[in-house]
Every structure is written in C-alpha cells, then in structure tokens.
C-alpha cells in the first residue's frame, strides 16, 4: 500500500506543476545525490535560431537552407525547427531517416542530403574543405553547429554548408543550479552538443562537471557509470536523445514541452519547462519521505 504521505506529496507535486507517474518516483528522489542536466531545451530555451550560414563557392546559402530544411521538416529537434523557420515553406525530402543526437538524411530531387553534427558528416564519408573546417571551429566557440552536404555526380558527398545555431540560456537556470548545489547535490552537464558551447553554458551557470559531444547511448552509459560509483542519480532532459538516460536514472525528470519519448521515459514531467521545478521536486520528496519515517 502507498503511504498516505506519499499520496499527499504526489498531489501537492501536481499542484506545483510536477506530474509524478508512480509513488515510487518520490521515494527515490529523496536519496538523490547527483543531478545530471541536459543542455539544449533543459538549461536553454531550446528555441534556436540560425545565426549564420557559411557555404563553399559553388553553393548558394539560400539554396542550401532550402535543401536542408527539406530533410529537417519532419524532425522535432530544436536545430531542425530553427533551420525550417529560417527557410520558410519549401519542398519536403523523401526517405528521411533521423538518427537521434546525430542528424538526418533524406532525398531531394534524387540527391541524398545529410545534415547533422560535424562527426556525422565524417560518418557519411563526406569531404570537408579547410575553409569550411575553419567555419566549424569558429562556430563551435560560439554555439551549436550543423553541417550539411550532398554529392553532385562525385563519388563522395561534400560538406557544402555550415550553420551556426544560437540558443538562449533560460533565465531560471542559474538560480536552479545554485539551489540544487545548496541542497548538497553534485551537478553535471551532459550534452550531445559541442564542448565549446557546453563549457560556455556551464561557466555561466556555475556547473563544474561537463560531458560534451555525448551520443544518446553515451548519455545512458554516463548515468550507469555514476550509478556504479554508488551515486543515486536524477537525470533531467527533454529530447529523444535523453530517453534512454531518463529511463535508466533513479529519477528521470522530463521537461514539459519536450519530446513525447522523453516524457514517457521519465518518472516525473515538469508541466512548465522551468528548471526551478527540479529543485521543488527534490525538496518535496525529501519533505514527504521525512514525514513517513
Ligand atoms: P543535446 O544533448 O544538447 O540536446 P543532441 O544530442 O540532441 O543535443 O544533438 C547533438 C548535436 O547533433 C546537435 O548539436 C546537432 O549538431 C546534431 N543534431 C541532432 N539532431 C539533429 C538534426 N535533426 N539535424 C541536424 N543536426 C542534428
Ligand atoms: Mg535536449
């Protein structure tokens, strides 16, 4: 039977915009000593915009944007939304395949177009010119970088466009991180994005431990590694790429407004995508379990 205090705690949580899937969720939250935070859409708004497009001499930036938007239209990733918004209406690619945390591939007018993290281009066997490699390096000092390319008769595809994507840190994130540390919790930033932007966000928020460039399976592995150290881990995320890590964590917290896969994998969903609710969830759980003992 579920102790009444837990039921009351669950009801109070709901009033505060914290939806708990089962009463066990609050029980584990009480023992949490480590909180792992995703970056994009969790600590940042996730309302990304295209800040710049750099192309090779043979490629028109507007055309590149239209082609890449064609493959991104079906994706709910914030970078995809940014690219589609910048391009406006246009064609939709065929045979689109989306690889969580990596990128997308599709066919536009018979041409296979890919877009994704720089490592994804290498996985596609794409050539990267020194000029565009410089654009990647410069972009990664400032923000999120997506590279895109295709083959025009050549054997190997070529990277033809580098997109720099900007995001904004949520106004509530710094306070939430400070409060989590105030509760004695270790805070870790875990992101699929590049190390440059991850370090910048971590520094702004006072987070000392950063794991960047981590693929979805790597996010899961990091949670398991922390648990193997004897830690009790809460993971907070919003994306398809966070789902496995959310499911493996002792407490999986999904940001409201994120991907359905994240909400299904989590134990708790924050109705408002406000990181301060993470602190509320931990506090409430401690108080609830304190009443029972
Ligand atoms: P995060 O952990 O910050 O939420 P992700 O793991 O979702 O980031 O993505 C990591 C990187 O993979 C992105 O910064 C981007 O470069 C690339 N990426 C992911 N999905 C897409 C997509 N749909 N289109 C282009 N690039 C993508
Ligand atoms: Mg995210």
Automatic annotation (TrEMBL):
Subcellular location: Cell membrane
Taxonomy, superkingdom: Bacteria
Family: Belongs to the cation transport ATPase (P-type) (TC 3.A.3) family. Type IB subfamily.
UniProt-recorded name of the protein: Cation-transporting P-type ATPase B
Native source organism of the sequence: Microbacterium hatanonis
Source taxonomy: Bacteria, Bacillati, Actinomycetota, Actinomycetes, Micrococcales
Residues of the full protein shown: 420 to 712 of 761
